Amino acid sequence: MHPIKDYVGYAVQHITGVDNERYDRSTAERVFMIDVNGDVFNVPECYEPEFRYSNLFSSLLTEIARSEARMRSIALSEQRMRRFCYQCPYFGSCPGTFVANATSVERAMLEASGCPVRAVLDHIVDVFRRTDLENYILEIHKAAAGASTDAYPALSVA
Predict the structure, then answer these.
(1) pTM
(2) Domain limits, the chain
(3) DSSP codes of every residue in 81-121
(4) What are the strands, taking DSSP E only, across the chain?
(5) Are the beta carbons of 7 and 124 closer than 8 angstroms?
């Protein structure tokens, strides 16, 4: 349910021209996975030895955050975003989180079929257009400029 709400929100933002979201794992990464032996990983590449940041028992958290493995992982995340997100018409409305945080299985899916989030957004935007919801969303967006989402709950997904 949560991803669908996010995707509808991205589609609403796309239609209304909101273009202000860009995911940056170097500043947004909030969770580290700690193995029982103290090894530290990020969530998308958890337990992949080449992405072991360090060991919590032998390194300070500041050292872990600056580790070579973390910098390499972030660089690969940014590279995926450049490849799959930067030319996407939804980038900015969609922050690119799926691509940035793709697991090994999701990375294989990206390579084989492209971004599934883009396909879902294509569908949602198409439904908005075919059902005239696009005009309704734009009208509500104009009327709600500066108003709270309490007054216009239809825009609360954005």
Answers:
(1) 0.83
(2) 2-145
(3) HHHHTTT-TTBTTB--HHHHT--HHHHHHHHHH--HHHHHH
(4) 32-34, 39-42, 54-55
(5) yes
